[in-house]
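ok new one. same drill as before - structure tokens go in, u give me an amino acid for every spot. 213 of them this time. try not to just spam alanines like last time pls lmao
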């Protein structure tokens, strides 16, 4: 009977050790799977959406109506804008303020952190911000809202990468619309908007793995 109990306890002990090992391995696998330095930001449809070089936008009710193609281009641009949908947490961080703007040309109104990650010996922070541009000659100062990737090495800013920006003037706007995938490839398309319509300025692709080496 005594030998039987010893065998049963040994079997239970081995089973517990095996179960604990499996849980540890699964937890490690989950951590490694989720521990990616680059998070997806923006709309992947940006890559395949084509824009005309220029299209007309109806600003005033009495203005000429937009054509079908103009409406399609404008709807595509509006659908790809993701700034307001990004979930973030408001913070106060003087280091971010210093690294995000030149205090002689603009000031920070508010900062929000979207996410953070590690890339080797560097720390990555995805930051959403609202700014006021210091520029004379306007009754109402221009404003900017942006999403930037701040990269620090040894607590010093190593690189700042803009993913999204929307600079609004009284009668004009500049938009840099980006999409960052989990592989670290950043795609951007830029636009100028004024009373005459929207101008598509071009597109760009960057490999952040190379940029942040």
């Amino acid at each position: 009977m005594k030998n039987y109990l010893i065998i049963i306890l040994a079997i239970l002990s081995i089973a517990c050790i095996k179960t604990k090992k499996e849980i540890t391995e699964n937890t490690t696998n989950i951590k490694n799977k989720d521990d990616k330095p680059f998070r997806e930001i923006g709309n992947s449809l940006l890559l395949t959406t084509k824009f005309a070089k220029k299209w007309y936008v109806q600003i005033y009710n009495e203005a000429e109506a937009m054509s079908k193609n103009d409406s399609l281009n404008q709807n595509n641009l509006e659908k790809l804008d993701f700034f307001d949908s990004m979930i973030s947490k408001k913070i106060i961080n003087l280091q971010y303020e210093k690294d995000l703007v030149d205090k002689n040309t603009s000031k920070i109104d508010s900062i929000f952190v979207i996410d953070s990650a590690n890339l080797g010996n560097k720390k990555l922070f995805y930051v959403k911000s609202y700014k006021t541009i210091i520029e004379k000659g306007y009754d109402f100062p221009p404003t900017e809202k942006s999403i930037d990737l701040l990269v620090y090495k040894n607590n010093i800013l190593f690189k700042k990468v803009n993913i999204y920006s929307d600079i609004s003037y009284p009668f004009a706007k500049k938009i840099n619309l980006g999409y960052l995938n989990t592989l670290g490839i950043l795609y951007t398309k830029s636009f100028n908007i004024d009373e005459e319509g929207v101008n598509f300025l071009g597109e760009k692709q960057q490999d952040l793995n190379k940029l942040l080496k």
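The helical segments are 2-34, 68-80, 94-100, 208-211. and btw Residues 1-34 have pLDDT under 50 and may be disordered.
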